Amino acid sequence: MTLKKELNRRILLVDDEPKILEELKKVLAPNEIVGQKLKELEGRLFGQSVQTGTAKRTYQIHCCHQGDEAIEAVQQALDNEQPFAVAFLDVRMPPGPDGVWTAEHIRKIDPNVQIVMMTGYSDFDISEIARRVPPEDKLLYVQKPLHSQEIRQFALALTAKWQSDYLLGVQNEHLVEMNKKLTEHDRMKSEFVMTVSHELRTPLTIFKNILSNAMAGVMGKIPLKLQQNLEMADEAIDRLATIIDDFLDVSKLEVGKMKLYPEALCLQQVIYEIVKMIRFVAEKKEIKLDMVLPINYLYIRADYDKIVRVINNLIENAVKYVPEKTGIIIVRAEEADQQVIISVEDNGPGIHGNDKEKVFDKFVQVEKHIGPGKHGTGLGLAICKDLVHLHGGRIWIEDNDNGGAIFKILLSKHTPQETETGETEPAEQIASA
Ligand code: ADP
Question: Does the model's pTM come out above 0.70?
Answer without folding.
Answer: no
